[in-house]
Amino acid sequence: MPERFETVVVGGGQAGLATGYHLAKRDRPFVILDANERIGDAWRGRWDSLRLISPAGVSGLPGWPFPADKWAFPTKDEVAAYLESYADRFDLPVRTGVRVESVSRNGSGYLVSADGLRLEADNVVVASGRFQRPRVPDFASELDPDIVQLDSTRYRNPAQLQEGGVLVVGAGNSGAEIAFELSSRHQTWLSGRDVGQTPVQHGGRLDRLFTPVFWFVIYQVLSTRTFVGRKVRPKALHATPPLEPVRRKDLAAAGVERVPKMVGVEDGLPVLEDGRALTVRNVVWCTGYDADYGWVDLPIFDQRGEPADERGVVENAPGLYFVGRYFQFALASALIGGVGRDAEYVAEHIAKRSATTVTPT
Question: Rounded to an integer, what distance in angstroms lies between the CA atom of residue 81 and that of residue 43?
Fold first, then answer.
């Protein structure tokens, strides 16, 4: 017999935990399913030197500020520990090591299939996060097999690479940070367009003055309820944020050579937009991510594979919700410090819906 829940939350990262917090506040029964063995493993599995770009003071989940100096930039392991402690602190019912394989209609509710389990639910919240499937071009397979290739989800530290030059493809924050780190041991090229940089030095005195203003803008001004937010959103969905921790001068000082976009492969070597072929021994792909909703077996997606929702509520599939998507309601929606408001909105919608829905026991 399938287990029965009022709400199943898919994903035990910041979006899923924030949703759980708000559902618990409303005394609604739910379970959170996470594919990782431990809460926070999605953070533990990223590169060793990664830190949050936002300071701890604006990086807390609802109900519990991040336990660090407000101007500190927590490491990825500190973020993981915080998420794990958060679930314990609020006694959230998280089942780890459970990978959801499909969500489908089941009468007026949903059937969630996961690792041999079958769960029936009135509501399903998809909170599986932004970093789901690394975006690597098809021509990557044409590179010389002797070239070590890693994407940013598998890169940990410079020791993984072999001697010789490194091409980092993708010049956003991830690419810049990884290229900067690798430059101490390897001749390093950073491929991609210049995405600009923030107007003040990351972590400096001016940054402390700028941060409250920045957060007000991305949390309040750039949202779907304002004219400017609605105008900016389509562009922001496809834009790469400007450089913050590692800036242009840092890359130049470290000897990282900026080169044009990689466009193909010739004789097993990466070819740039200007026609050059680079002789390198390693390639690190920092070319972004694609959402992977193939396991949601429902006709709710547009041509780009994005769900047709309004603030996370899918109108043509009552009881289905999304939390943690980029610019879901505001530019801050996918950030640890910004996801709580969207989670609260979805939890309140579930509470109101569930008040009129009798769940069999």
Answer: 9
User: What per-residue string of b and e applies to 284-311 under the rule 16 or more CB within 10 Å gives b?
Assistant: bbbbbbebebebbebebeeeeeebebeb
DSSP annotation of 158: G
CATH of the domain at 72: 3.50.50.60
**Both tokens assigned to 162:** 């072999």
Query: At 264, which amino acid appears?
Result: G
Same domain, residue pair 185 and 64: no
Burial status of residue 171 (CB atoms within 10 A of its CB: 0-12, 13-18, 19 or more): buried
What would the mean pLDDT of 56-65 be, rounded to a whole number? Answer: 98
Are the CB atoms for 158 and 49 separated by under 8 Å? no
Distance CA 247, CA 250 (A): 5
Domain region containing 176: 135-197+242-285
Query: In this structure, what are the phi and psi dihedrals at residue 205, rounded to the nearest 5 degrees?
Result: -65, -40
What's the whole-number mean pLDDT along residues 172-182?
97
Residue type, 289: Y
Work out how many domains the chain is built from and give that number.
Answer: 2
- Report residue 73's pLDDT band, with 50, 70 and 90 as the boundaries: very high
In a domain, 226, yes or no: no
Q: What share of the chain is helix, strand, coil (3-state, %, to 5)?
A: 30, 25, 50
Where would I find the H helices in 37-172? 41-44, 76-89
CB 6 within 8 A of CB 30: yes
Confidence at residue 357, expressed as pLDDT on a 0 to 100 scale: 66
Q: Where are the alpha helices (DSSP H) in 143-294?
A: 173-182, 205-216, 227-236, 248-253
List beta partners, residue 294.
none
Tell me: do 11 and 56 sit in the same domain: yes
Say if residue 152 is in the same domain as residue 58.
no
Strands 117-126 and 3-10: parallel
Strands 257-259 and 148-151: unpaired
User: Are 141 and 92 within one domain?
Assistant: no
Same domain, 145 and 183: yes
Tell me whether residue 53 is in a domain.
yes
